[in-house]
């Protein structure tokens, strides 16, 4: 198990160098990597913003969930 974790950490550390090698091979590759990074970054920012808003909403107003339906008269 320790070997698997160390291999994962090593591959994460090697990844930026491999991305740079691929980006330098062809101008189109560099553009595609840049567009992919922007799309992933934007999606992560939106998800983070929504998650942060939900957590803040729970902390500030913990009892502000949907109210039970009113009884019919």
From TrEMBL:
Q: What is this protein called?
A: Uncharacterized protein
Q: Which organism is it from?
A: Haloarcula onubensis
Q: Which UniProt keywords apply?
A: Membrane, Transmembrane, Transmembrane helix
Q: Which domain of life is it from?
A: Archaea
Which residue windows are transmembrane per the record?
A: 31-60
């Amino acid at each position: 198990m320790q070997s698997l974790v160390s291999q994962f950490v090593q591959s994460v550390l090697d990844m930026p160098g491999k991305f740079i090698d691929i980006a330098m091979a062809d101008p189109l590759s560099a553009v595609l990597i840049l567009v992919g990074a922007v799309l992933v970054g934007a999606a992560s920012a939106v998800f983070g913003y929504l998650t942060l808003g939900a957590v803040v909403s729970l902390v500030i107003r913990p009892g502000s969930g949907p109210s039970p339906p009113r009884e019919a008269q």
